[in-house]
Amino acid sequence: MEVLREKVEEEEEAEREEAAERAEWARTEKMMRPVEVRKQETTLTQETLGELEKQLSEIQIPVSAELPTFAKDTIDISALPVSYKTNTPKEEQLLQLADNFSRQYSHLCPDRVPLFLHPLNECEVPKFVSTTLRPTLMPYPELYNWDSCAQFVSDFLTMVPLPDPLKPTIKREEKALPKKYTIRPPRDLCSRFEQEQEMKRQQEIRAQEEKRLKEEEERLMEAEKANPDALHGLRVHCWVLVLSGKREVPENFFIDPFTARSYSTQDEHFLGIESLWNHKNYWINMQDCWNCCKDLIFDLGDPVRWEYMLLGTDKPELSLTEDDSGINDEDDVENLDKEDEDKSFDMPHSWVEQIEISPEAFETRCPNGKKVIQYKRAKLEKWAPYLNRNGLVSRLTTYEDLECTNILEIKEWYQNREDMLELKHINKTTDLKTDYFRPGHSQALRVHSYKSMQPEMDRVIEFYETARVDGLIKREETPRTMTEYYQGRSDFLSYRHADFRPRVKKLTLSSAESNPRPIVKITERFFRNPAKPAEEDVAERVFLVAEERIQLCYHCREDHIIASKREFLRLSEVDSKGNKIIMMPDMCITFEVEPTEHTKKLLYQYETLMHLKKEEKLSRHQVWESELEMLEILKLREEEEEVHTLTISIYDTKRNEKSKEYREAMERVMQEEHLQQVETQLDYLAPFLVQLPPGEKLTRWQAARLKDECLSDFKQRLINKANLIQARFEKETQELQKKQQWYQENQVTLTPEDEDLYLSYCSQAMFRIRILEQRLNRHKELAPLKYLALEEKLHKDPRLGELLKMFT
To answer: Which element (helix H / strand E) includes 603?
Structure first.
C-alpha cells in the first residue's frame, strides 16, 4: 500500500513540476506554443490516470455472505432520527474514501480478510464504523474497537476440585525412655502370605480401574476429534482495546464488551488482529500474527506496523528512540505540516444518538431477562434479578458427555432471598445437595448438606458460630448418631457425640417431642482449661447410658506420657426394696499417674458421681433439644423452599409495596389539602348573587335574604352528609349481621378455607364500620363549628357586612 501511495504521489509531483514549467514557458514565450502540443500532454496525463482508474476498478472486493440482519418487527424505523436513514455529503465523501481504501487493501493483500469499514445499519444505510462511536460515552480517550479473526471463549470452565479444610493437629513431644525400659513391640500375628495376596488383589483392582479410566478418556478424545471446528480461526469478533499511557493505564489490555471482563494482550486465545478504529481514524495491522498477539507492538504512529486510513493532524506520533529524538529539521516539519493540511480529512460527527438505558432495562441485563450460554459439557443460564419468583439468577449445569445428556452436577445462585440462600449445589452422581447461606438466617445456617429432607437422615449443617449463644459450629446427623462441634464456650466443650438405638414407634413431626430416640451413649470432649491442673481437667467423658457406666479421661500433663482415668458404675440411689445404696469402693475404678490421698476418699468419689449424674441428665436434655432443633430447622427449610419470599430494598419504590402505599397516601393527603385550599378560595356567595340582576346594588332586605339562604343551604348540606354517612354505617352493619347469621347457620359444614374467608370479611367489615363511626362522630362535632364560622364570614364579607349591621 505504501508503494502504491508513493507512486501516486510521484505522479502528482510530476504533474505539479510540468504545470510550473508550462507556466514559466508561457510567460517567456507569451503563449505562442501550438495548441496541438498542449493537447498531446493533456492526453498523456489523462491516459495515465485512466489506466490507474481502470486497474482499481477491476479489483473485486469479496463480501461476506452473512451480513448482519435486523428484524423489522422489533425495530421501529419510523421513530429513528434522520441521521439513521440518510448520509450527509461529508459522510458520502467518507464512504468513497473508505471504498477506495478497501480496493487498495484488497489489491495489496488479497489473502487477508475483507475490511470491516462500512456495514449497513438498522435502516440498511451504509455507515463508516468510526462514525458509530460517540466520544462522550468512552471512559478512556484511547478506546478502540478490536476486530479479531479468533474465536475466543471468555468463560471457559475450570473444574478444579477444592481441597478439604485441613484439621488442626496437636503434636506433643514425648520424652525418650532409657534403653533398659524400652517396651518390646507386640508380635505380628498376621499372615504375610494373606497380606501379599491382598496387595496383589488391590493392585489388580487399581490396574483395572486405571485401564477403564484410560479407555474412557481415549473414547472421549476420539469423540472430540470426531467433530473438529471447521471455523477455527475464521470467526471475527469485535473487542475493545485500551492503550496505556493516559489515565494512569499501566499496560494495554482488551475488554469483552458483552461481559465487561478484561484480558491481557498476551492471552494465548487471541489469534490475531485485523484492524483498529476509534472516533477519529482507522488502522490496519500490518504485523505478522504467527505468535498470536504476544509480539504485536501497539504503536499506532508507526505506519510500517499500522497503516492508517485518514491523514489527520491529530494522528498518533511515532515513538522515537533517544538517537532519533535529537532530529530538529524545522523546514522539513513545516513542509510536512503543509502537506498534511492539504490531505487531511476531518471525521464527521457520530450519527448515533446518545444511548439512554432505563433502570428497568439496565436491570434486565439481556433480552427478556434470560441468557443461555452453551459450553463444552456445560451450560450456563443467567436471569435478571426478581425475574424468577424463587430469586434464581444463575445456573451452571455440567454434563458427562459432549451431547449434554447425562448431568453430573448443578450449581444455582440466588439473590434477594429472605432465607439468605446464596448457592445450591446438587451432585447428581451421589444425589447430595448442599445449600450455602449468607449471614443473617434465622437459624444462623451457613452450609446444609443433605440427601433427603426427611428427619434423622444423613446430613451436615454448619452454623455461623458468632450468631449462636452456644458456640455450635457444625452438626452431623445419621439415622443412629448425632455429632456436634463447638467453639468458644465457657465450659470448654468442643465435641459431643450421641449414639441412638432404633425407636419403637415410627417418627412423625408431631410426635418427635413425645417420642425421642433412645440414647445409648454420649461422648463429650473438652478443650484444656488453663485454670485447672491437668489431672483434674476432664478431656473426655463418656456416658454409657445402656450399661449404666461413666468413663472419664483427664488431660495429660506435659511431663507425662499417659493421662489419668476413672470409671464409675452409675447405679440407682435405692435398691428394689427401697433401701438407700451406699457408695462402695468397687463402684469407682481409678487409674492415676500421681495418686493423692484426697482422690482416694469415698466422699470425693461420691461427690464426683453425683455431679456426673447431673451432668448426664443435662447432656441427655441437650441432645434432646438438638433433635428438636433439627426438626425445627427441617420444617423451616421446607416452608422457605415452598414460599421462597424475596426481600425488597426500601429504595426500590416500584417493588416495595409498603413504600408504594406510603407514597400514595402522602399524595392523597397533598391532594386533599390542595382541594381544601381551592374550596377556601371559592366564592360562597356566587350561586346566590347570580339570581340578582347584574349591576344592581344590594339592599338591606336582599343582604339579609342572601345570608339566610346561604346559611340554610350550608345547613342542609351538612345534614345530607351526616345522613349519607349514617346510611353507609347502617348498610355495613346490616351486611355484617347477615354474614354472622349465615356463619351461625353453616358453621358445622364450613371448610377451613371458608372460615378463613369469613374471618377476613369480618375483619374488613369491622374496620369499615369503625371508620364510618369515627367520621360520623367527627362530623357531628365539626358541623356546628363550621356553621358558626360561615356565619362569621358572612358578617365580615364586605358585600354584606355594612348592610347587615343596620339590622343589629
So the answer is: helix 602-643
pLDDT given for residue 789 in this prediction: 85
Give Cα 34 to chain centroid, integer Å.
Answer: 85
Q: Which three cell numbers stand for residue 47?
A: 491516459
Do residues 279 and 312 touch, judged by C-beta distance below 8 A?
no
How far apart are the C-alpha atoms of 410 and 423, rounded to whole Å?
A: 10
Q: What is the pLDDT of residue 801?
A: 66
pTM: 0.58
Q: Hey, which residues does 372 pair with through a beta bridge?
A: 381
- The pLDDT value given to residue 635: 93
**Direct distance between the N- and C-terminal alpha carbons of the chain, in angstroms, rounded to an integer:** 111
**Which class for 599: exposed (0-12), middle (13-18), buried (19 or more C-beta within 10 A)?**
middle
How far apart CA 773 and CA 775 sit, in angstroms, is: 5
Is residue 330 classed as helix, strand or coil in its secondary structure?
helix
Q: Check the CA dihedral 514-516-520-522 and report its sign.
A: negative
Euclidean distance between CA atoms 708 and 714, whole angstroms? 10
Contacts of 725 (CB under 8 A, 6+ apart): 772, 775, 776, 779
The DSSP string of 75-135 is: S-GGGS-HHHH---HHHHHHHHHHHHHHHHHHHH-TTSPPP----B-TTS-B--GGGG--G
Per-residue pLDDT at 573: 63
52 alpha carbon, distance to own chain's centre: 60
550 contacts 567 by C-beta, under 8 angstroms: yes
- C-alpha 283/C-alpha 358 separation (Å) is 35
Q: Shortest CA distance to 484 belongs to which of 459, 508, 503?
A: 459
Q: What is the C-alpha separation between 573 and 567, in angstroms, rounded?
A: 17
Note the helical H segments in 233-347: 330-343
Q: Quick one: pLDDT at residue 800?
A: 73
Contacts of 290 (CB under 8 A, 6+ apart): none
Half-sphere exposure of 161 (CA within 13 A, CB side): 3
Distance CA 460, CA 447 (A): 8
Other CB atoms within a 10 A radius of the CB of residue 649 amount to 10
Residue 66's CB: how many other CB atoms inside 10 A?
5
Per run of 10 residues, the mean pLDDT along the chain (length 808 residues) is 50 61 48 38 53 60 45 70 91 92 90 88 91 63 33 31 33 44 75 89 92 84 69 81 87 86 87 90 90 89 90 55 45 49 73 85 85 92 92 94 90 94 95 95 95 92 93 94 95 95 66 75 95 92 92 92 90 62 80 85 87 93 94 93 88 80 86 74 69 73 81 88 92 92 88 89 91 91 88 78 63
Q: What DSSP assignment string belongs to 718-759?
A: HHHHHHHHHHHHHHHHHHHHHHHHHHHHSTTT--HHHHHHHH
Residues 444, 464: contact at Cβ < 8 Å? yes
